[in-house]
Design brief:
Elements lengths: L1 H23 L3 H8 L1 H9 L4 H4 L8 H25 L8 H13 L2 H24 L3 H17 L5 H10 L5 H28 L2
Helix pairs in contact: 1-2, 1-3, 1-5, 1-9, 2-8, 5-9, 6-9, 7-8, 7-10, 9-10
Length: about 200
């Protein structure tokens, strides 16, 4: 479990770096493209990212499910550590943009945030499963890039990315925690749609 937690911290850190580059560029298309560095490293290095691992919860035993809260906490630690470290540098200037993003996220009705989180992890599953199962090398990486770019450009809610934005934007509050939990549940729901649909269709 200790190794899983450390791996989850690293996963959170690389997602935070993706968030950093997104905040650093004006063009959202370019930002979404380079944000993909996070999921790219997670998949190629086998790191533990909650939004990826939760997709396969029904394909594994109960012990697997018990690792998910540990992974979530590790992701929170990783994203927060990077954001707090960046605030000690000139990158603190990114806080203003992060704050604006957080205000938009927290102005969404809770049910809307849940739906956007569901849609997000449908895209994450497409990206991760495409990477895992596509027999063509180019196809593996296109699946990752398209899955991530689509969820960002559509404004879908990714709980781990939002951990970074909330810390960078100084937006933590009781409301932010509630929204993050709702988004986490939405990500979990969205992540299992693909695997469950695949099982039904394969019968």
């Amino acid at each position: 479990m200790k190794k899983i937690f450390l791996s989850a911290i690293l996963a959170g850190a690389v997602i935070a770096f993706g968030g950093t580059v997104f905040l650093s560029v004006e063009n959202t298309v370019v930002g979404s493209l380079f944000f993909t560095i996070g999921l790219f490293v997670v998949c190629t290095r086998g790191l533990h990212l909650f939004t990826g691992k939760v997709c396969y919860v029904f394909d594994n035993d109960a012990a697997y499910a018990k690792t998910l809260p540990v992974i979530w906490l590790g992701n929170l630690a990783g994203t927060s550590l990077i954001a707090l470290a960046e605030k000690c540098t000139r990158l603190v200037s990114l806080s203003a943009r992060a704050q604006g993003i957080c205000e938009l996220k927290l102005s969404e009705p809770l049910f809307g945030a849940f739906i956007l989180a569901v849609f997000c992890n449908v895209m994450i599953y497409i990206g991760v499963e495409g990477y895992r199962s596509n027999p063509h090398e180019l196809g593996k990486y296109l699946a990752l890039f398209f899955g991530v770019c689509v969820f960002i450009l559509c404004g879908f809610e990714h709980c781990v990315a939002n951990m970074y934005y909330f810390t960078m934007g100084g937006a933590w509050s009781g409301r932010a925690v509630l929204y993050l939990l709702v988004m986490t549940v939405g990500n979990a729901a969205g992540g299992v749609i693909g695997p469950l649909a695949r099982k039904v269709l394969s019968r």
